[in-house]
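We were asked to recover a plausible sequence for a given structure. The inputs and outputs are reproduced exactly as logged, with field labels preserved.

PROBLEM: sequence recovery
POSITIONS: 400
GIVEN STRUCTURE:
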């Protein structure tokens, strides 16, 4: 049974509609609008079309600015489309921002009743689900009768989520809400969403967390520059999404070969490249990872007996977690103050996702840190992944 039909939906904003903080930019736009009779238009969605059926859990991926949140706001009737048609067959609940649909002056109990009434539910039906909602949110019942403006952001997220999945909506719209909650509630929330889908409800789920998309979704859509770039199986959608942002994660192969990556009084780092020994710029899990860079010593007082210590620190970009570091000590030779360094990591077991490398260097005294020197991406192999929640995969041999 069809729950959502989206046909050639477009959305554009006039620059004057946006929250412009730069006065000079605003003044320039004012001149264009009023004196030249021109309007600056920012197209966000450019003819989006797709359908959803009951019982589907559809993930939406896309780079920042691709139109994901705007699309959900159109479905939630927060903003109208510029053109196109949207047909929704049933009741809609949305979790687009923390506290969406809540009145901060009302109590938790009053907000639950208000949201149920908006969805067209009977007062008795809402009261019958009150205890279940409060229990699921993990909120002390004694706090239910104080204004939610006194709740922490975590409490608001949990309560909003509990209300949305228990108040009989046919289509639930979610934008990154689970990604900002703690791990235990994230797991509990995902189980609640899966239960909804088994009951025939539908979920449209926007997230940058590909692990969450893998865990729950039965299908995924990739928005690319305001259009549907891909609509289909989850793993194929993730591969498409990863390739669409690959240009952002392989700058070292072209532009960085001609630029200085890092420089201080002692050392200059150039030509920093991360690649797969087997597949070049496309790096898959279990590939041998090669990191190449060139350094030049600038301090002429560095003695021959000194050593250049280099440390590479790897971060998971999606989780903002430091994973591990590797380091070495390079002897300094008087006649060789410029040298190329190659670091090889055989059969790396990083999970598919986005990563960055930071560098620290030391000669004699303190370690000197840099920002992210380079970013790269680990792609999923063609077989499906059994370890979607892990950041690093460990191969083991079992003997019985």
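RECOVERED SEQUENCE:
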């Amino acid at each position: 049974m069809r729950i959502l039909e989206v046909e050639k939906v477009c959305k554009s904003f006039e620059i004057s509609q946006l929250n412009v903080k730069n006065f000079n930019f605003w003044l320039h736009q004012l001149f264009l609008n009023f004196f030249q009779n021109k309007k600056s238009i920012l197209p966000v969605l450019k003819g989006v079309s797709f359908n959803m059926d009951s019982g589907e859990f559809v993930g939406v991926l896309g780079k920042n600015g691709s139109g994901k949140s705007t699309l959900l706001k159109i479905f939630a009737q927060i903003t109208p489309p510029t053109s196109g048609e949207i047909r929704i067959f049933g009741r809609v609940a949305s979790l687009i921002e923390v506290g969406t649909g809540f009145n901060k002056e009302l109590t938790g109990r009053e907000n639950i009743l208000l949201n149920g009434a908006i969805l067209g539910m009977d007062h008795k039906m809402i009261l019958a689900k009150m205890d279940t909602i409060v229990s699921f949110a993990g909120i002390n019942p004694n706090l239910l009768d104080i204004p939610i403006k006194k709740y922490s952001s975590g409490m608001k997220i949990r309560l909003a989520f509990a209300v949305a999945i228990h108040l009989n909506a046919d289509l639930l719209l979610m934008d990154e809400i689970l990604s900002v909650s703690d791990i235990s509630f994230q797991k509990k929330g995902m189980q609640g969403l899966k239960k909804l889908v088994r009951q025939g409800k539908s979920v449209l789920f926007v997230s940058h967390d590909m692990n969450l998309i893998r865990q729950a979704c039965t299908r995924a859509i990739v928005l690319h520059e305001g259009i549907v770039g891909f609509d289909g199986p989850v793993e194929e959608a993730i591969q498409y999404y990863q390739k669409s942002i690959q240009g952002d994660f392989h700058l070292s192969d072209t532009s960085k070969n001609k630029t200085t990556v890092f420089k201080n009084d002692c050392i200059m780092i150039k030509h920093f490249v991360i690649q797969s020994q087997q597949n070049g710029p496309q790096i898959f899990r279990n590939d041998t990872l090669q990191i190449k860079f060139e350094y030049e010593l600038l301090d002429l007082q560095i003695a021959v007996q000194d050593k250049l210590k280099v440390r590479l620190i790897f971060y998971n970009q999606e989780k903002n977690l430091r994973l591990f570091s590797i380091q070495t000590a390079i002897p300094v030779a008087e006649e060789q103050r410029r040298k190329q360094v190659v670091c090889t990591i055989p059969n790396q077991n990083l999970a598919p996702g986005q990563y960055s490398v930071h560098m620290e260097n030391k000669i004699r005294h303190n370690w000197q840190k840099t920002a992210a020197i380079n970013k790269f991406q680990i792609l999923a192999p063609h077989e499906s992944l059994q370890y979607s929640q892990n950041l690093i995969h460990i191969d083991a041999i079992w003997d019985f």
